[in-house]
Amino acid sequence: MLSKKTKYGIKALTYLARRENNDPVQIAEIAKNEHISIKFLESILLLLRNSGFLGAKKGKGGGYYLIKDPKDISMAKVYRILEGPIALLPCASHNFYERCDDCDDESTCAARRLMTEVRDNTLKILESNSLADIAF
């Protein structure tokens, strides 16, 4: 199940992408319009800023803004930043691979085969969608 952090991160990015200009937006405005706790949203936006998706301006007229064009923001990258691995099992992950403690033979593991297929299809969908694709 998708975490609230990821859901709210996508909602905040979509809110910023839909704006007619790229002026900074205060956290309170995003939180109010997207029904997200300000404190929780602060931590999400900071993570997205540190990951290179957002810029921030302090002071009057300050807030967060996109530093990349929405068409250049891959939803797969956003997902990995906010949610972590796309694979549901560590042995099926490309970027976060770990062998399962209870597995004798990965090549015959039915759970791994199924979860690898789930990962591949999920990744295909996330990689084929940018922020622009989902925001407009």
UniProtKB/TrEMBL annotation:
It holds the Pfam family Rrf2. Signal peptide: none annotated. InterPro entries: Tscrpt_reg_Rrf2, WH-like_DNA-bd_sf, WH_DNA-bd_sf. It comes from the Bacteria. PROSITE patterns: HTH_RRF2_2. GO terms for cellular component: cytosol. Keywords: DNA-binding. GO terms for molecular function: DNA binding; DNA-binding transcription factor activity. This is Rrf2 family transcriptional regulator. It comes from Flavobacterium resistens.
